[in-house]
Design a protein that fits this description.
The chain is α/β, with parallel strands linked by helices. Helices cover 31% and strands 22% of the residues. The protein has 8 helices and 12 strands. The strands form 3 sheets. A 7-stranded mixed beta sheet has the order 3-2-1-4-7-6-8, with helices on both faces. The chain has a 3-stranded mixed beta sheet with strand order 5-12-9. The protein has a two-stranded antiparallel ribbon with strand order 10-11. The longest helix has 14 residues.
Length: 224
């Protein structure tokens, strides 16, 4: 069975409400049987897997790679806006898939939506980081967990969501906010693209910073 996972580390801007919104969005749009879990050090409104380490902030996401696949992961600042059938199919059948960075279109990756079936590769990621977490944090710095995924030596094995499912996983800032795209320079109208299934925020604004009638904010709030 597919495991859909998220991570909530206490001390940041997120709380259990964000877990509930993501859980409900997944429930609304994923028909196939699945298990929804949250790795966390606080109580959450779903099955909780306790965080084993006290790795700060985004570094806690690297505990995900202990989970046996198929696993589909979403960051908490993600809006589920359409049918996840194709996304789940990719998660079920591809070894490891990450985002192509929405700005660094050549080589960069993003970790806001990931999936994996390759336990050896992913356990290798976890073991490498766990063997020297302080060293990795110092070397990677503000590039965070996705910087580790780029530098840990496995990047050539990752598939990219945007290549496998063109148009289905999009960026709020690049594809939904309207105006001139900071990535492509093209002008777009505000709104959710017709093929989109998942909208990633990757930074600010967050949902609560958007205007009340913003289509992405409305979709996120509707999940409650």
């Amino acid at each position: 069975m597919l495991t859909v996972a998220c991570v909530l580390k206490s001390g940041g801007i997120y709380d259990a409400t964000w877990v509930a919104r993501l859980r409900d969005g997944v429930t609304r749009h994923l028909a196939q049987p699945h298990r929804f879990v949250c790795l966390s050090d606080v109580e959450v409104p779903c099955e909780r897997i306790p965080l084993e380490h006290d790795w700060p902030g985004w570094w806690s996401k690297l505990e995900l790679f202990k989970l046996r696949g198929p696993v589909l992961f979403f960051d908490l600042d993600t809006a589920i806006v359409g049918d996840l059938t194709d996304v789940a199919r990719v998660a079920d059948h591809h070894a490891t898939v990450v985002l192509q960075d929405f700005y660094r279109l050549g080589a960069g990756i993003g970790s806001g939506v990931m999936s994996w079936n390759d336990l050896d590769l992913c356990r290798g990621l976890y073991d490498r980081f766990a063997a020297d977490p302080v060293g990795w944090m110092k070397r990677i710095g503000g590039r965070g967990d996705q910087g580790f995924l780029e530098d840990a030596g496995y990047a050539q094995h990752y598939g990219r969501w945007q290549h496998l499912l063109p148009g289905q996983i999009v960026s709020y800032k690049v594809h939904c906010r309207g105006g001139q795209s900071p990535a492509t320079g093209q002008w777009t109208e505000p709104g959710i693209p017709g093929d989109a299934r998942v909208v990633c925020l990757h930074g600010y604004p967050k949902f609560v910073d958007m205007p009340d009638g913003d289509a992405v904010r409305v979709a996120w709030e509707r999940a409650a």
